[in-house]
Amino acid sequence: MFYETSDNAHGLPHDPFKAIVSPRPIGWIGTRGKDGSVNLAPYSYFNAVSDNPKTVMFSSSGRKDSLRNAEETGVFTASMVSRALAEKMNLTSIDAPYGESEFGIAGLAMAEGRVVDAPYVAEAHAALECRVTSIFEVKSLEGRPSGSFVVMGQVMGIHLDEAALSEGMLDMAIAAPVARMGYMDYCDGSEPFRMRRPAWPKA
Predict the structure, then answer these.
(1) Rounded CA gap, 76 and 151, in Å?
(2) Residues paired with residue 106 on neighbouring β-strands, in sequence order
(3) How big, in percent rounded to 5, are the helix, strand and coil portions of the chain?
(4) What is the 3-state secondary structure (H, E, C) of 50-82?
(5) What are the two backbone dihedrals, phi and then psi, of residue 87, each rounded to the nearest 5 degrees?
(6) So what CATH class is 22-186?
(7) Could you give the CA distance from residue 16 to residue 28 in angstroms, rounded to a whole number?
(8) pLDDT, tens digit, for every residue of 117-155?
């Protein structure tokens, strides 16, 4: 089959785009707002884009709390999601009101960055401390704004769990990083598994 994305008339139950571009690493983005509140949210539009300088990006579909906080403070963290933390990561995807701490919602310990004023997941096998270098809105070929925003950050510091190191390298069998595969599917280098995103209770 073939379809053009201008009308997206694929005729399938779900758009396959995200499943095609997979697996995608998950950036577990930690931020603090100007008001002092903290936020933790997973982004599967996340990746490393440069090694010199070490730079990562995450993309927010809409003006979400992570974007707001990164704009306000100029910093964020990105924690590695391992298989043992996958269910808690999923809990932090909940659409909680601004100011609610997803660390508390998911029962995660919060650690403070050493060089940036943003929290990260203490239980994570690795975490990156980043300073924002640019934020821009994705535009179409016609120049139309999309409502999706890319946050670029230079990595200023790296946390590594020494228990996840083997012969001086991050042991992927121990770290078991989780990636998004589209739909409700995830993988950790072995068998895919599924999780449904939680919804915040409505009044």
Answers:
(1) 10
(2) none
(3) 15, 40, 40
(4) EECCEEEEEEEECCCHHHHHHHHHCEEEEECCE
(5) -65, -35
(6) mainly beta
(7) 24
(8) 999 999 999 999 999 999 999 999 999 999 999 999 999
